[in-house]
Specification:
Elements: H1 2-14, E1 20-29, E2 32-37, E3 42-46, E4 55-63, E5 67-75
Parallel strand pairs: 3-5
Antiparallel strand pairs: 1-2, 1-4, 2-3, 4-5
């Protein structure tokens, strides 16, 4: 059952490859940032000069069953709000 769920999750996440997602950053370490999309998916992305609590746009390049991976493509202004 878990194998089936992992296959389904990976397929759904892979469908986001090539898209740009808005991500709220939760942590940053050595040029790699971690955050979550509006749909609560975990994202790991390469990006510098990003601060925890910032919204950034991330271009999704790869995915696993539990994580999206990509690169920060744009930072929102500090005054950005939902």
């Amino acid at each position: 059952l878990l194998d089936a769920q992992n296959r389904i999750s990976k397929k759904k996440n892979m469908s986001l490859c090539g898209t740009t997602q808005e991500v709220l950053l939760e942590s940053s370490k050595q040029g790699l940032v971690e955050g979550r999309t509006r749909s609560n998916k975990v994202v790991l992305a390469h990006g510098r000069d990003c601060s925890i609590g910032e919204f950034v746009r991330v271009r999704i390049d790869d995915a696993t069953c539990s994580t999206l991976r990509g690169k920060v493509s744009c930072q929102f202004p500090k005054s950005y709000s939902l």
